[in-house]
Design goal:
Layout lengths: L27 H7 L5 H17 L2 E2 L2 E5 L6 E3 L1 E4 L9 H14 L3 E2 L9 H9 L9 E6 L4 H15 L4 E6 L7 H6 L4 H10 L3 E7 L4 H13 L6 E5 L10 H4 L1 H6 L3 E5 L15 H10 L4 E5 L3 H13 L5 H15 L6 H4 L5 H4 L6
Parallel strand pairs: 4-11, 5-6, 6-7, 7-8, 8-9, 9-10, 10-11
Antiparallel strand pairs: 1-2, 2-3
Helix pairs in contact: 1-13, 3-4, 4-5, 5-7, 11-12
């Protein structure tokens, strides 16, 4: 299918390592002069990418749009996280949040076969009636590692979402070292996904994970060995990740090199990063938006939180190198052991760890 390309080594990475972050500084100018952890070169790459996106991309109702990798699809800078859309006591509130987001200019909708026992997909399917499906770039995920499990989950997601196609289907929670080989094995999940794509049930293929950038790289290189290149990859990108077991440092350069769509998630670590008192919600969103992300997916469990995300997208301007340095300086100490990134350091966010039967 796609030609294989050499995986970049740490030496080849266009981003510096963030291990030598300064701990204390009284002035922003001092931060700039001493920040070996960032460097002007990396900041310039991020800014240049954002500027290129801005020049060639549109906006809708004030929401900037970016290009989803080599697919050419235009997606909203902010996307609605599906997990939080199945938590409201009244399903009508969930539907109202989704439709308000679509009316306000968001088009990227995130979901998953296992979210809230399927309730997130059911509510999203209801919200996409009455012409709203045409406004959405619809993404969902499956857990199945076997062909049989993946096929069943794809069909169930289509039924719940009340659609004949999913725009982007992703393998969910690629968090084990064994996941890539299982997915690409004979009678593995990739066979089901490719068959669904050929049948027109899905358009693009990606994967997600929150545990380890090394597992992401193994998934990408395993795909390459099978002559396959993903259309999109989802991973945590935030002010804490930049310092600890970093997807930004290790995986992002690979995705950019291969023109794979970058889906940033957990900009606030499911609110846990906010508990560190080192960054505000808007600072968290703007940091993730400043990276070369196609879309930043954020959970919106209420209309006020949705409005916060909308305002962050509408007000976003590329951050200067000094602004990025200041954010990373503020968050360095809190981030160093991963205590605010529990999705990396615990099983608290691992649905398939608690429910291994979902894997098939």
């Amino acid at each position: 299918m796609n030609s294989k390309k050499k995986q970049p080594s740490q030496k080849d990475s266009c981003y510096p390592q963030l291990s030598s972050i300064p701990r204390t500084d009284d002035s922003r100018d001092a931060d700039i002069s001493r920040r070996g952890f960032l460097g002007f070169a990396a900041a310039s790459i991020f800014l240049a990418h954002t500027e290129r996106q801005s020049r060639r991309s549109e906006s809708r109702n004030g929401i900037p749009y970016r290009t989803l990798g080599r697919s050419g699809e235009q997606v909203s800078l902010v996307g609605l996280g599906g997990y939080h859309l199945g938590k409201q006591t009244d399903p009508q509130e969930s539907i109202h949040i989704i439709r308000t987001g679509l009316d306000e200019g968001i088009n990227f909708l995130d979901n998953c076969w296992d979210y809230n026992g399927g309730e997130s997909e059911i509510r999203m399917g209801n919200a996409l009636r009455d012409g709203y499906r045409q406004k959405a770039f619809l993404m969902s995920k499956i857990d199945g590692r076997t062909k049989a499990a993946a096929t069943s989950q794809i069909n169930e997601s289509l039924r719940r979402l009340e659609t004949d196609r999913i725009d982007l289907l992703q393998f969910h929670e690629v968090i084990r070292d064994t996941d890539p080989d299982r997915i690409f094995a004979e009678a593995g999940g990739m066979e089901a996904v490719l068959e669904a794509q050929k049948a027109g049930k899905i358009r693009y293929i990606g994967f997600t994970g929150h545990k380890s950038p090394d597992i992401h790289l193994k998934m990408l290189t395993t795909a390459s060995k099978h002559g396959f290149t993903f259309d999109a990859v989802q991973m945590p990108l935030n002010v804490m990740d930049a310092h600890f077991n970093s997807f930004e440092n290790k995986v992002l350069p690979f995705l950019l090199k291969h023109d794979i769509g970058v889906l940033g998630m957990k900009p606030m670590g499911d609110h846990i990063i906010l508990e560190s008192k080192t960054a505000t919600p808007v600072e968290c969103l703007h940091y993730a938006m400043n990276l070369p992300t196609s879309v930043v997916i954020t959970g919106c469990d209420s209309l006020p939180i949705l409005q916060q995300a909308l305002q962050a997208a509408r007000s976003f301007q590329p951050l200067s190198a000094s602004e990025v340095a200041a954010l990373l300086t503020k968050t360095a100490k809190a981030a160093e052991a991963g205590q605010f990134e529990l999705y990396k350091t615990s099983h608290q966010f691992d649905g398939t760890y608690a429910n291994p039967q979902w894997l098939g």
